[in-house]
Design brief:
The complex is a heterodimer of chains A (424) and B (381). Chain A has twelve helices and 21 strands. Chain A has 424 residues and is of the alpha+beta class. Chain A has two domains: 272 residues, Thiolase/Chalcone synthase (Peroxisomal Thiolase, Chain A, domain 1); 131 residues, no CATH class. In chain B, strand 5 and strand 6 form a beta hairpin. The longest helix of chain B is centred in the middle third of the chain and has 16 residues. Classes of the chains: A alpha+beta (424), B alpha/beta (381). Chains A and B meet through strand 17, strand 18 and strand 19 of A and helix 4, helix 5 and strand 5 of B.
């Protein structure tokens, strides 16, 4: 029976303190201490890639048969994982995506749910909205198994006069569990009102408001604290229009739980707003250098997965991709994936006036940035790249760095993703 | 070379056609015994982007506006080395016997467009897809070269600033220069950071200007002057577009190759050169050039600059014109502008910046971060 064998979370690199938000905005919902918000080059897709890579661990992306992705550019995610044999489905929701991955599809499957703040900057809802992603690897014998589920859906009321707890109540009435099942619950507070059970963990405190991702993060955090006796857990989500509950049970050992990296940059609410990309006044694409879509797509495996070329006649490794081997003029190449870690070969901090026009808007909003040449000494290749996660002192030549997929720039409304390098 | 002239480089309100016509008329005026415009058989014009509009048939348009319609003419584009390569094309045509009298021009117009637009087309002569889209146009790329030079050879910010101070001191005596004022080391070191470790005074100013050279074959030159400047050596090379694809980031192999050919053709070595106009788009570029051209050993370029060995009257006069740093850098006109300085110096007409007794000179014109390079060696006739 299909079950979850690995879960990983990703969160964005910026964190804003609730106290600072309250000072800036005059209010802050209770129960939140930190809000995790994306940096300029992070979005639902980059968070999804971060989480998915961790959930896969040493498993190869090419073994995946299905990817279910919510809040993600699924095609970019599949390419970043090298999931060339997977059917890739974009789905909505969080708990619904997980249920589909467990009930409806072939294993191994990956379910990835990502959220980013949805409101406009400055809107009242925005202040507590957070970003994050969760990835679930579903395999034929995964230890976390779906035992039963219940869903109730009704038409939305434009005037909101309906009983908001009704979907929760009706869904839970149909939700039959053994009377003695010791439960822990990840999901809506409404469930506590109708079933006398309490959430084991409240993810809002450390993450902020996560929307459809919230119950999945709570499930993860609850499991990390240790499944209760009997291994039962209920995860659910509910609104005034719908409610879904899943009852899961840990059957056997081996469930892998990978928390997000602790590293986060604490920023002011003002800075978080500047990093949101929505305030930029400078044109960042109209005056930018143009790379046609076809040319860009040709290099996507290199951009997203560090796929280099190895010349079939002289074995020279080439990265970025070339049309002809400069040593022997060979034109037949095998793919060779570079390791994710490289070392800094050269570096510069680009100040005002030093940036290409397509990054001028970013620089106006977020300040000077680091660019470097990184090297893989063993393969004898180098590439120019953005270096991220450094302060004004930057990295030193010789420092190790690790590849992550981030937004590079936008062209004609499409986001161009690729690797950047940060501290190991 | 029997005639040569350039407009003053800098912020010029005139249209490209007027700038080019001015340089052409002045080049004819510089010919000692006069030249009939109808003697010119063919023209090569270096321009990277003209000013952002006349991208096609640029040469036909400029030649027409300069009063030479009808002759074969072509635009040569190798980024900032465009007119260095235009000069080479004319030299090769004359050597082959296909042409006896040729015009070499260069033109660029950078100051009547927005700063964003300017950075847009400057950046497209590096590696666009990988280098530029990582956020590094030329300031960033040369800054990374500087970071390697500092790492490998302990070169200091002070060494780089010394290049700027020397070139501004020379530019202060050059009426063609955009910036005719000296600066101090303190001022250079305290200027805003553009791309660490390069400050504003480590970077040249891309600007407006035109330059025109008149060349004649050995058999025809003396009709026009008793003192022709002979182009004894012409070398050129290309290299990987992106610096990350080169084995080293502290040398420009294209410079080494081009200089090797030019020296060999001229039968001279680096120690014979009295003055060198080198491509100092950034101060680190002059440091690399002094090494790659053989004026000092690899890794010694920082000390060479700090000790003032490139000043007028020392080892070799490097950038007596002020270089790109002080004279200004109208991309496509820069290579021809370097030859104008040689023409004036070897004729003893360089005024306050005259290199006394100058006999042998060199020009070094680089495109991008070293993807193209043309080197020429000249001798006073």
């Amino acid at each position: 029976m299909n079950g979850i064998s690995s879960i990983a979370l990703a969160r964005p690199s910026l964190v804003v303190g609730a106290k600072e938000i309250a000072e800036a905005w005059g209010r802050m919902p209770r129960g939140i201490e930190h809000v995790r918000v994306p940096a300029w080059d992070e979005d639902g897709t980059t968070l999804a890639i971060d989480a998915a890579k961790e959930a896969l661990g040493r498993e190869s992306g090419s073994a995946l048969r299905v990817i279910l992705a919510s809040g993600v550019d699924a095609a970019i995610l599949a390419e970043a994982l090298g999931a060339h044999h997977a059917r890739v489905l974009s789905v909505a929701g969080g708990i619904e995506a997980l249920e589909a991955a467990l009930r409806l599809v072939d294993a191994p499957a990956l379910c990835v749910v990502s959220v980013v703040p949805a409101s406009a900057p400055g809107s009242d809802a925005r202040i507590e909205e957070a970003a994050g992603a969760a990835a679930f690897l579903v395999t034929a014998d995964g230890p976390l198994q779906l035992i039963t589920s219940s869903t109730y859906v009704r038409a939305a009321s434009p005037r909101g006069e309906l009983d908001a707890d009704e979907p929760t109540r009706l869904a839970s009435e149909r939700f039959v569990l053994p009377a003695d099942a010791p439960l822990f619950v990840a999901g809506p507070a409404a469930l506590a009102r109708v079933k006398s059970v309490r959430p084991a963990v409240d993810a809002r405190k450390e993450w902020g408001a996560l929307g459809v991702l919230a119950p999945l993060v709570q499930l993860f955090e609850s499991l990390r604290q240790g499944a209760p006796k009997g291994g039962w857990c209920v995860v659910g989500d509910a609104s005034a229009e719908r409610a879904t509950f899943l009852a899961l049970k840990v059957e056997g050992a081996g469930l892998v739980l990978t928390p997000p990296p602790e590293r986060a940059r604490r920023v002011s609410p003002t800075r978080a707003l500047a990093e949101s990309r929505e305030l930029s006044q400078e044109p960042d694409s109209t005056m930018g250098a143009y790379v046609p879509a076809g040319t860009w797509v040709e290099d996507l495996p290199a951009r997203l997965r560090l796929v280099a070329q190895q010349c079939e006649s002289c074995r020279r490794v080439m990265y970025p991709p070339r049309a002809t081997c400069p040593d022997c003029r060979g034109r037949a190449f095998a793919g060779l994936t570079l390791p994710p870690t490289a070392i800094v070969y050269a570096a510069t901090r680009i100040g005002r006036g030093g940036a290409p026009s397509e990054f001028a808007g970013e620089q106006t909003q977020t300040g000077a940035f680091w660019v470097g040449v990184v090297e893989w000494p063993e393969q004898r290749v180098r590439v120019t790249t953005r270096l991220i996660g450094y302060d004004e002192h930057g990295p030193n030549i010789g420092d190790p760095v690790r590849a992550v997929v981030r937004r590079l720039f936008e062209q004609e409304g499409a986001v161009r993703y690729g690797v950047k390098f940060g501290p190991v | 070379m029997v005639g040569a002239s350039m407009t003053r480089f800098g912020v010029r309100p005139e249209s490209p056609k007027r700038l080019f016509a001015e340089a052409t008329a002045d080049a004819f005026a510089s010919v000692e015994k006069s030249m009939d415009a109808r003697d010119v058989q063919e023209a090569w014009v270096g321009s990277m982007a003209f000013g952002g509009w006349q991208f096609g048939n640029t040469a036909a348009y400029l030649i027409e506006q300069a009063g030479l319609p009808g002759i074969p003419a072509q635009r040569v584009e190798n980024a900032c080395a465009s007119s260095g390569f235009a000069l080479r094309d004319a030299v090769l045509a004359i050597r082959s016997g296909a042409c006896d009298v040729a015009l070499v021009g260069g033109l660029e117009k950078m100051n009547d467009i927005s700063g964003l637009h300017k950075r847009y087309w400057l950046g497209v002569s590096g590696d666009t897809a990988w280098e530029r889209m990582a956020g590094a146009t030329f300031p960033g790329v040369y800054a990374m070269m500087a970071s390697r030079h500092m790492h490998e050879f302990r070169t200091q910010a002070l060494d780089l600033a010394s290049v700027a101070v020397k070139n501004h001191a020379n530019g202060a005596k050059n009426p063609h220069a955009q910036f005719q004022r000296a600066i101090t080391l303190e001022k250079a070191l305290a200027s805003p950071m553009v791309a660490s470790p390069l400050t504003m005074f480590d970077c040249c100013s891309t600007t407006d200007g035109a330059a025109v050279l008149l060349l004649a074959s050995e058999g025809h030159a003396r009709k026009y002057t008793d003192t022709p400047i002979w182009v004894d050596g012409s070398g050129a090379a290309t290299d990987m577009l992106a610096v990350h694809d080169r084995p080293s980031m502290t040398t420009l192999p294209a410079t080494v190759k081009a200089a090797g050919v030019a020296y060999a053709e001229a039968g001279v070595s680096a120690t014979d050169i009295d003055l060198a106009e080198v491509h100092d788009c950034f101060t680190i570029a002059e440091v690399l050039a002094t090494e790659d051209l053989g004026f000092c050993g690899k890794g010694e370029g920082g000390a060479f600059a700090r000790e003032g060995r490139g000043a007028i009257g020392r080892d070799v006069a490097v950038n007596s014109s002020g270089g790109l740093k002080a004279k200004g850098h109208p991309l496509g006109a820069t290579g021809a502008g370097q030859a104008v300085e040689v023409f004036e110096q070897l004729h003893g007409k360089a005024g306050g910046r005259q290199v006394s007794g100058a006999e042998v000179a060199l020009t070094h014109n680089v495109g991008g971060s070293g993807a193209t390079c043309a080197v020429h060696v000249y001798r006073r006739g």
